[in-house]
Inverse folding.
């Protein structure tokens, strides 16, 4: 019997495939298309304490091998999430992870403090890439001190495990990863989107109302993979790999690089069944290679230096 479970220490997932934040709604939107019980986990879209409108349109641009978005973290806020969404999600046998956002450190703490009172959440994923957290408009993920301060505060406030989600828009992602680990993060997920832009030469205007957006999809996979490998080599907490994963083959690259689990984002827009297809492809690979437990594969990159 094939064993696809992966143990993150604080939570055991039935398989390593998790739906990524912002690309899978609040999870239940995908229930007409796939059996959510099949997933290792679901990260719901980013939640601020209060409801938010997000940025003005246009907010999405397709590129040759990816997507640039400037949705601006539109969301329903914690109260509606706890009252309307969470009771529906609890019916499914999959790990529910809440992606937490904030304009200031205190807002992240308020979100986890509020949600901690209810049942049905396995962990929080801290989206430390939210802009405007610092007075200078920078997000904490760009700075090791700000990352440390935010993660420590949230860790003190909540009783559940914390996964810190790192931004790739830095010179040295390992430095930020080590800061989050030192501040008590239980795991790391990476990467969020790459800062990008697109221009319409006819009008000479930006294609996004916000000028800049975040690039995701297949275009970013090789860079994300490199970062996951570097972070997995340098830290001792579980790493969750994200970035351009479209197939079981892509997911395998991240597992072999050292990720204990992976998140699937943009692929959900191309094919709402992407997550379950990736799980099936992982199972077939394990069968074909006589791998009884998928965990045997994690971090097994062979390097001849
Ligand atoms: C439309 C859209 C919305 C997103 N919203 C969030 C979000 O709310 N919180 C977050 O941490 N990441 C968010 N992300 C980033 C994804 O979770 C993921 O980290 C990124 O897209 C890279 O993975 P991918 O190439 O598989 O899409 C969003 C991405 C997209 C495309």
């Amino acid at each position: 019997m094939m064993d696809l479970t992966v143990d993150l220490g604080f939570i055991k997932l039935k398989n390593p495939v998790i739906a990524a934040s912002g690309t899978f709604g609040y999870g239940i939107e995908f229930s007409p298309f796939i059996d959510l019980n099949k997933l290792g986990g679901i990260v719901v879209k980013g939640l601020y304490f209060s409801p938010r409108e997000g940025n003005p349109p246009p907010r999405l641009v397709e590129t040759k091998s990816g997507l640039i978005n400037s949705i601006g973290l539109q969301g329903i806020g914690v109260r509606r999430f706890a009252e309307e969404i969470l009771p529906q999600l609890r019916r499914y046998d999959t790990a529910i992870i809440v992606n937490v956002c904030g304009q200031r450190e205190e807002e992240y703490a308020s979100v986890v403090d509020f949600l901690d009172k209810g049942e049905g959440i396995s962990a929080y994923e801290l989206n430390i890439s939210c802009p405007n957290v610092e007075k200078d408009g920078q997000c904490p993920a760009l700075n090791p001190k700000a990352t440390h301060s935010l993660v420590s505060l949230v860790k003190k406030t909540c009783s559940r495990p914390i996964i810190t989600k790192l931004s790739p828009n830095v010179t040295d992602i390992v430095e930020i990863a080590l800061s989050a680990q030192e501040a008590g993060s239980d795991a790391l997920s990476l990467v969020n989107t790459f800062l990008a832009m697109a221009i319409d030469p006819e009008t000479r205007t930006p294609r996004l109302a916000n000028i800049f957006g975040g690039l995701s999809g297949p275009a970013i996979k090789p860079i994300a993979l490199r970062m996951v490998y570097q972070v997995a080599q340098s830290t001792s907490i579980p790493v969750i790999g994200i970035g351009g994963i479209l197939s079981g083959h892509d997911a395998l690259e991240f597992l072999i690089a050292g990720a204990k689990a992976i998140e699937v984002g943009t692929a959900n827009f191309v094919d709402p069944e992407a997550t379950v297809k990736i799980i099936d492809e992982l199972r077939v690979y394990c069968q074909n290679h006589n791998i009884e437990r998928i965990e045997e594969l994690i971090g097994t990159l062979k390097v001849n230096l």
Remarks:
- The radius of gyration is 18 Å.
- Residues 20-23, 45-46, 67, 69, 71, 73, 99, 127, 165, 192-193, 216-217, 220, 242-245, 264-267 surround flavin mononucleotide (CB under 6 Å).
- The chain has one domain: 6-54+72-194+217-297.
